Amino acid sequence: MADGDTVKMTLTFWRDGKAPGDTVEVPADEVHRWKGFAVLAGDSTPSGESTTPTDATKPEPKPSAQPADNAKVDEWRLYATSIGMEPDKAEKATKAELQDFVAGTTAGAQA
Dihedral angle at the C-alpha atoms of 40, 46, 47, 49, nearest 10 degrees? Predict the structure, then answer.
């Protein structure tokens, strides 16, 4: 490597007053110091999505009983969708809305 060799890198985090997306020239022998802050220019930036294959046909676990009142909202979402709430609605619903849905649905089943 000759003196003056540089590598162009695209920042992925703020560094030295530069913003993510800015291109910087880094001495080739200093690239290792920029790992985690930048990627080689022209490289694709990590998407943050998992590259591990998943089994799309694997069913969601079905809860067997209504969650406790102090259970986390995710448990209420899972239960509400298992008894008929639309998944899109459940994702947007608050814990109180989920509990109201469950109460209304289970009240009809008990009558």
Answer: 170
Say if CB 26 and CB 5 are below 8 A apart: no
Report the range of poorest mean pLDDT among 3-12, 46-55, 69-78. Answer: 46-55
Write the pLDDT tens digit of every residue in 49-75: 555 556 555 555 566 688 889 989 988
Kindly list the domain boundaries of the chain, sorted by start residue: 6-40, 73-110
CA distance 57 to 45: 29
Query: Token pair of 12, please?
Result: 């992925």
Token reading at 64: 């067997």
In sequence order, what are the residues at sequence separation of 6 or more whose Cβ sits closer than 8 angstroms to the Cβ of residue 82?
A: 60, 62, 63
Long-range contacts of 28-33 (CB under 8 A, 24+ apart): 28/1, 29/1, 29/5, 31/7
